[in-house]
Amino acid sequence: MSAPSSPAFRQDLQGLRAFAVLGVLLFHFGVPGTEGGYAGVDLFFVLSGFLITSILTRRTEPYLSWSDQAAFILRFLAKRLWRIAPAMTAVAMATCAAGWFILTPEDFISLGKEAFAAITFWPNLYFNAEADYFATASAYRPLLHTWSLGVEMQFYLLWPLVLTAIRLLPGRRQSYAVLLLLALSFIACQILTFADPSVAFYNPGPRLWEFLIGALAAWHVMPPRTELAAGSKWQQAGDWIALLTLLATPALFGPATLWPAPSALLPCLAAGWLISRPVKTRLVQSLLENRLAGVIGTLSYSLYLVHWPLVVFSNTLFFPEPSFTLRMALLAACIPLSALLYVLIERPMRTLGAAPGLPPLKLGGVAAWGGAITLCLLLASSNGLPGRWKTGDLVALTKAERNPEVSDPVCGGTGTSLLCEKGAAGGIALWGDSHAAALEETMKSWAEETGTHFRAFIGYGCPPLPGAYLRNTPVSLPKSKCLRNGTPVLEAILADDKIGTVILSARWVWYFTGTRNGPDRGGPVYLTEDKWTLASKTGNRAVFEASLKELAKALQAAGKKIILLQPVPEFTFDPVRCYQAELLGREAHGTCRMEKAEAEKRQDETNRFFASLAAENSAVHLIQPDPVFCRDTTCSPVLDGRMAYQDDDHVNRIGAAALLPLLIQAAE
Can you provide one Gene Ontology molecular function annotated for this UniProt record (predicted)? Predict the structure, then answer.
């Protein structure tokens, strides 16, 4: 394999950068028809693979000494650091400064953690670790977009070492080695996209193949021929196909698309083709090299950095999102803000990074970076600096706590005497997913106060449906952890003679229909009756009904009572943030409500099956939670002025305490 030619400046690559960043911005600011604009990040990965490989292969020739190669790699990493870190640190600090005036203490702590992860180059790993049921919704994480810069920086650290080893191989074996790495990464990405989408999305290993498409393009740049500069007709047709693919990508894909593999392969290959052809058919070349595309390409890094905090802060101030007009105004504001960042920080620091040694300005930059890291650590370990807020606002915010502390004993209130008789309900088992977990602490406190035998069996994201296999996609393997929340739990309950009542609680509608509801809809879920059946959402109902009927029969035969808690109302917005906005005067009083008919429509089919199950099995007793949260024609997540939900579908301790009397009365 021959080494790539010197990576001289190419105006067409600026055009590709412009396509990439515009796709991301249009998608994030909610422009219709651009739901697949997130693929712009993947284009950046391909471009980075091309540029970095082009630079590195000039000075990692096998005939050079190891010391020369190591010195070059260290200089390269230092330059990349000065290229990326100053602007990202500046935006992180500016975001924290804006957050001082806008964010609640809880969100301000979270911002400190995000900023620390961002400026120390592991935000992708941080956000992957935070991807759980109760993490802050993505629309309210001001530095979430820095995850891609973490992936890039980790590639910069890894690839020079790998590439140096590959360059020791003879001839074509270098290409074969890169192709092998690309194939292995793509296969791993494909598997993880099905098995664990968060890992596939945020981690550098499953993303490596995108960079390597760019790396292969660096080795196989097609040199223009004088007699036919733009190549053959087939090559020119390839230019048009690749360009049209990139133009269509924002409209072709969307939130339901499996990403990154296999879908990202299409735009990445298109980008790789265009990168490998420095001279293209004339019109394609002119579209990529026009002056406007050049300006946007030059500002692309700064544009990417400044846009997302604007989206998040506008979502916070204008819950649940600003008007389309305001979003377009913020989109336009990204241009001057990014220009300022480029002129004041990005360009000067990039020039400074290329200077040899450690002049005073460099030392000052390093000191500023260290100071920023210290400030982020202090913020992350603080209590959110509540002193920023007026006392009245802080008092108001306590009514909207996501997980309020409830120190009063469960049996200490009025009207609880009948519920708190020692051993009145016999032994109780609580079984379910995260919806059962939301009840566990309250029920455990009640059991301790009354001396009741109590056991909880919780499987997050896993229904209490023995014999049902749960998958994220129609062709992925079943979730192994969910198998442990099925038959083994049933056997444990049947073997425990002290348990007389089993309370079942789960996000029933999700498993029954296969679809979520709420501000973070997430992906579908599939149920099958065995490991190898090809799944479909239309098959969920049959598996769900058969499994729950068999479960009810088994528990009835063992003489155990079944309390089935029907679905709680699922809100189409984040109740906590809505109520915070209401308490702070950002939204009108009474905004945080949902039409009762809308909640009932979501639950209808599931509840009708539950009614038929209770009619045919006398051991099944249904608990309808809607009366606790719904009055007349509306449902509210607020009870007696305090938030009773922790997100759109999970109750918090206050909500659990409100449901407890219904559960215990049914268990007696």
Answer: acyltransferase activity
**Residues β-bridged to residue 469:** 528
For position 222, what pLDDT does the model report?
57
C-alpha closest to that of 399 among 629, 591, 637: 637
> What's the distance, Cα to Cα, between the start and end of the chain in Å?
78
Helices then strands (H, E): number in the chain? 27, 12
| Cβ atoms < 10 Å from Cβ of 170 | 8
Q: Is the distance from CB of 313 to CB of 45 less than 8 angstroms?
A: no
Torsion of CA 236, 240, 242, 248, to 10 degrees: 180
Q: Provide the whole-model pTM.
A: 0.89
**Taking the C-alpha atoms of 489, 492, 494 and 497 in order, what is their torsion angle to the nearest 10 degrees?**
-140
The 10s digit of each residue's pLDDT in 6-44 is 456 889 999 999 999 999 999 999 999 999 999 999 999
Q: How far is CA 311 from the centre of its chain?
A: 16
C-beta of residue 16 within 8 angstroms of C-beta of residue 288: yes
Flag whether pLDDT at 425 surpasses 90. Answer: no
Task: Please answer whether residues 462 and 510 qualify as being in contact, where contact means their C-beta atoms are separated by less than 8 angstroms.
Answer: no
Contacts 24+ apart (CB under 8 A), 531-536: 531/469, 531/477, 531/478, 533/469, 534/474, 534/475, 535/471, 535/473, 535/474, 535/475, 536/474
Identity of the amino acid at 272 = G
DSSP β-ladder status, 594-595 and 638-639: unpaired
Average pLDDT, the chain: 89
